[in-house]
Amino acid sequence: MAHRLHAKLHTLYAEAQQLSALPDFDEHAHRLLLGLDFTAADQAELFEMFLQASLPAQNFRRRDFGQPSITLFSDGKVALDFYVWVQSNLAIHSHNFAGAFRLLRGRSYQHSFEFRDAREFAPHIRQGKLETLEHFELLPGRTIKISFGERFIHSVFHLESPSITLCLRTIGSKESLSSYLFPSLEITADVPLRFNVEKKLDILNLLPLTELEGLPAPCDPEELALMYWYAQEDSIAAHVRSFLKAKVEEHPWGPGLVAGVHQHQRYDHSMRALLSGQIT
Fold this sequence. Notes:
single chain; 2 domains
């Protein structure tokens, strides 16, 4: 029954609680997840456990990370999360928490990176060299350590649907999150700023082209670069992207940002085509 799996995971979580304040928590989280005896019977009980469990406050909103993500245990300092992946992306990112994750179901492909020689480029953006450290296939049982900040930059593409990962992690700090545009840009924003920019972008997306024409920039330069990057999502209308591109290019850093976004899109397209050939 699902309560057996729940009890097994709670034992693991209770041990993690005693270790969460240690500076090398990522090492301990890796050890705990690697040692978890997760059987075929446990996998069969996962969804029943999710439905029956009394869940704590969740670390992510409905579609922020995973489809869905489930926080099974949390005390405000350390959490045990499950991430169910039906759709995948190649977002390159760092983390504002430490811990480890283990693939429970499916197949995935991981790239890890190093960001070197960084310099300020535009508001919330640094330019440098994003270099691949290693890349490999993840199979069930493979466990990866998550170090804080730039010490662990990666992307994961899920080759089977659904893929499920288990993540033992500290609760994210208030420090900003970084995402990366291959091969040279780092974009950093804290959660309140990201939410503000996304909401303004949603408003822009409601306006037809005729109402956008002649409008001033929808925000100050501190937000404009972020808005242009977020506008690359498929849900944003093409005329909104064009409007923001024109506003971005009014700034000295604008053409470089536009070129960086274009380079990253070519990288994303080529990698997606390559990895999609491995999907079963």
